[in-house]
Fold this sequence. Notes:
This protein is an alpha+beta fold and 349 residues long. The protein is built from three helices and 19 strands. The protein has helices spanning 2-31, 102-130, 136-161, and strands at residues 40-47, 50-72, 77-82, 89-90, 95-99, 164-166, 171-176, 183-184, 189-206, 218-223, 226-238, 247-255, 267-284, 296-301, 304-309, 312-316, 319-322, 331-335, 345-348. The strands form four sheets. It has a six-stranded antiparallel beta barrel with strand order 2-9-12-11-10-13. A four-stranded antiparallel sheet has the order 6-5-3-8, with no helix packed on it. The chain has a three-stranded mixed sheet with strand order 18-1-19, with no helix packed on it. Helix 2 (102-130) runs antiparallel to helix 3 (136-161).
Amino acid sequence: xxNIITIVVLVGLIGLTVFQLTKxxxxxxxxxxxxxxxxxxxxxxxxxxxxNMDTRQTIDGNFMANREVKLNADxxxxxxxxxxxxxxxxxxxxxxIELDNSLLKLQLESVKIQVQDLEKDFERYxxxxxxxxxQKAKLDKIQLQLQSAIIQRRTIEEQIxxxxxxxxxxxxxxxxxxxxxxxxxxxVPLLQLSQMNILRFTAYVAxxxxxxxxxxxxxxxxxxxxxxxxxxxxxxAIGSKANPAARYPxxxxxxxxxxxxxxxxxxxxxxxxxxxxxxxxxxxLSVIQGQLDDAKVYVVKNNKAVLxxxxxxxxxxxxxxVGEGLSAGDKVxxxxxxxxxxxxxxxxx
Length: 349
């Protein structure tokens, strides 16, 4: 009898749960917005036309920190304090890491006492030597012991100084390899310090173009992260020997602005002064969907918006030159991208 009652109760609970879930689903579906795929939306379109565009020749490269160093300890010891974190901005001479130096300080106190005793002995032996009370050899021996103790004191003081690791230049902590309590040893990196306020852009330039660049020339740089921004840099080094691909390394110094921060490793281009004229379909950059290396545009076909992949040959200001994917006369959507998706019905003007 008890088993029958238990089964009845369980069946009732399951039924109640299913009923509540069905009710919740109905409420959710009533709240969620369902877009009408058959609805027609209004857009604006431009006609694709073949034309010429003056394009600036660019050479790819990447941005790196102007100065970068991995900091390690000159002596071994346990890390007592790490005073910076990843991304910390530091100044030259600022304390970054402190090692345990308690044992060295005790050794220093011992040597200081030894030096004081030897200094007193040296003064006493000097008086006795001048009075011919002892042989000068004893004074010389005390003097050597005193000099040795002074050198030992200076050595320990230098070791204590090396337990404090300081920033060699202004920069940013870009890597952190240790925490408090870890063991530091010579040659084992603890932090990476990078000078990020000034960046160095490196490009490998073909022999036919390297003569367009000269030392201290001001040049225009582009960063993939900011396609609409022109950066001004200065050529600081031109390699005198080509790599196996017959390209010469060119290094350009550029200021890293706070409004458009560039991170080390980002890609970009150096723009050469020489311009070339290319033919293709020129479109406003604003119609491009996605990234330039995987660009698409909406084309109106049979009163529907169709997302079409296109090849971008180059960019110039707010315009792009399309090589493949479009034909002259295609209607390209230029405005009205809200709620626009591939295959939706549209009318345009």
